[in-house]
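pasting for ref
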Amino acid sequence: MQSSEVISVNIWQIIISILNLLILFIILKKFLYKPVENMLAKRQGIIDNDLENAKKASEEAENRRKLYEEKLTGADEEAAEIVKEAKQKAQRKSDKILSNAKEKADDIVSQAKTDAGLEFKKAQSEIKHEITEVSTLLSEKILEREINKEDHRKLIDSFIENLGDEYDGHE
């Protein structure tokens, strides 16, 4: 007959485990979330600068058009041709700048999403592993090795996988 002993929970181990998880969360937030956020802010600044340059170029083209009209009031045909050329050039330049800025913005957003997704999956995997380790240690203490470590690890891995599947299904 097996001797039954009182199952005890060591509150200090639980507190330490919770503190470890909090520290891990803070580290991940500092080293993953903040740099990605800073990178996105820098890229947004570049895009804003490009858009501002496009606006200035458009305004400059408009100012030149008005100047040409004032100087060439007597030569309507010649003035019309100069204005037409200036508008087309400004429009092409504006379109090109806006197109380049949009492409850069799309690339930046796409890369940021990809990077964030990879970092999220990596962090999720690391957290699952950490939970497995902590659960193994706690379970060993609680169960006092009534099952072997390999069987216990399989049970926890199965639980974590099911937990991950449930989480993925709720996104």
